[in-house]
Amino acid sequence: MLQLVFLIPLIAGGVVYFLPAKKGRLILLGTAAIHVMITALEWFKVIGPLQTKYFSATPEGMLVLAIMSFLFLFISIYTIFYMGEVEMEKEPVFNSSMLLFLSAMSMVAIADHIIMLWVAVEATTLMSAPLIFVHRSKESLEATWKYVLICSVGIALALLGCFFVIFSMEMSDIHVPISFSALTTVAAELNPVWLKAGFIFIVIGYGTKMGLAPMHTWLPDAHSEAPSPASALLSGALLNCAFLGVYRCHQLMYAAGLGDYSSNVLIAFGLASMLVSAVFILNQTDYKRMLAYSSVENMGIIAFGTGIGGIAVFGAMLHMIHHSLVKSSLFLSAGNILLGYGTKIIDKTGGMLRLLPKTGITFFAGFAGISGFPPFGLFISELLIILGAIKAGRYVAISIFIFCLILIFAGAARLVMQMVLKDRDDVEIQVPEKWMRALPPLILLLTSLALVIWLPDSLYQTIQNAISSVGGTVNG
Amino acid sequence: MIHISNILLALILLSVLLSLRSNRLMALVKLMAFQGIVVSAVPLFLETEHGLTFNLFMFFLLLILVKGLVIPGLMYIAVKRVVASREIEPIIGYHASLFAGLIMIVFSVYVTNHLHLAMLPVGHKLLLVTAITTMGAGFVLLMARRKAITQVIGYLMMENGIYLIGTALAKQVHTQYVVEFAVLLDLLVGVLVMGIVLNDINHTFDDVDTALLGQLKD
């Protein structure tokens, strides 16, 4: 039963709210394990959906769900040990919101009805808001306010876009259920003008949530102010969910024969995001903000790759998987750094290899991964996207793409080198690092590494099924 | 012949213009309650193809309850709690906002006339004009005011506008109660979350002025 993936976390989240923090942590971990199990059963098609009117298991949805489920398991292990170190006044609220957030995201992954997808995306905003302002500092309040307001308004525009898409159907006098699967079958008959208008609004709406420039302004604030496990979840899982909304619409556009139009829109937004993050990453003083801007960049890369088409879509999907793994790992490492140094300012950290050796290694390796160095997966995905773009003859776009990559690498490398390598003896470590907090980021990194060496057949098949609907291929 | 729906739409436009002019938070909340009720009542008075079923009627009753009573009620509590009751120094002045509202009406008429929506039923054209104006005015409130409460009201007004556009364009949505109910629930929880954050902002800063929220930037 497919719906269990969001029902179980929903119920667990409700229960945890009323339980003491210690028991809540156990339930958090238990639910994460159950969620992985259900996802696995669903992945291997042991169980099917209960009813197909609002939900269905699509390959791209299953991909997002699998990433999310895997990440959540390790993030919840980390959370348990992280919570042991920090004094959090309202920990039950935090744990409960984590589970409700997982529930909302799972719902996004399996939603098929257009409006149901919208409802689920909006629910992710609302359920994750408490995660950001759990500290109740002035900064976190500001971040939450911006997050809730900007995303709600953005997503309201996506609702408008959904209405336009539905109207494009009624305009041509067709009557099918308003789900993506049903609409795709009649896509060619939909009114193209209204479909285009709908797509623009949906990209603006879900793009706000995804962190595409120029609607990304909430993202650095929210990611830097949220507690690190929540940042990891926001960056690794939530952004993919928003991308899924955009991707579904892109599929619809492609089926309607308007693929060129939607591709160009995605490429434009993708390049804009990369340019913006390249500019802002250069002079960052806060390492969590630096990671947040890197997420903006990587979401831009994914949108760009999807827009290019062909083998680049395969690259974009791989990029999504590896970015989630590596970026979550980086945010978890950032949590260890924050615990160790007690500050988010880059200048006040340093000498991590001596002071926090385990975290230093995971952070540095993560940075190498996110910059697209082999042997990590982002190297392959970026290479595929570049190859795809050259094959498609988009020379100007790919020049900007590569230019941004270099700029971002140069900007971030300076900061990371300073944090990891530049030794200093005037800082004291407040909370010493522990294996249990260093392991989850390490495992996530190793998973990314493993997926480069061996991509399981079923994963390969799923990606292939997911990208064939937008004209993507796996072999040039 | 004047339809009841046309009177309702005129009332919505009136509430939009009044809210652009108003500087008291309490008056704004009352206007929102009024607008919420009228907006939810509009579909009832449009000539529906399927007629009015019991389910439909119950749904609209729920809609009026939530949009006209529960959400404004939450806003009412929020206004009661905050220190400031007036909007001071808006980013765009009241007269300018009102003028913007009037221009928006003209603009919506222009847009609606140029969409070539021959297939829409007669009453729906005016509905679309009202809807676009409401949405735009909500956006103005969101951008041009500094109090967090006014911004929430702007968001609600925008949502009202989008709901009306949905009513005018997408008929099929309004026959699927599960979906519509879920949208309504999202709106309600959204206002609740915003209310909680608002309360904390008021508690921490002793004001709900968003100009105070300027610490995070690059």
Descriptive account of the structure:
The complex is a heterodimer of chains A (476) and B (218). Chain A is mainly α and 476 residues long. Chain A has 19 helices and no strands. Chain A has a domain at 297-476. The model of chain A has no long low-confidence stretch (mean pLDDT 93). Chain B has 7 helices and no strands. Chain B has helices spanning 4-21, 25-45, 54-81, 94-113, 124-144, 148-169, 177-205. The mean pLDDT of chain B is 86. Chain B has one domain (4-82, 117-210). Classes of the chains: A mainly alpha (476), B mainly alpha (218). Chain A binds chain B through residues 54, 113, 115-116, 118-119, 122-123, 125-126, 129-130, 133, 136, 138-139, 141-146, 148-149, 152-153, 156, 159-160, 163-164, 166-167, 169-171, 175, 178, 220-221, 224-225, 280, 283-284, 289, and chain B through 119, 135, 142, 148, 151-152, 155, 158-159, 162, 165-166, 169-173, 176, 178-179, 182-183, 185-186, 189-190, 193-194, 197, 200-201, 204-205, 210, 213-216, 218.
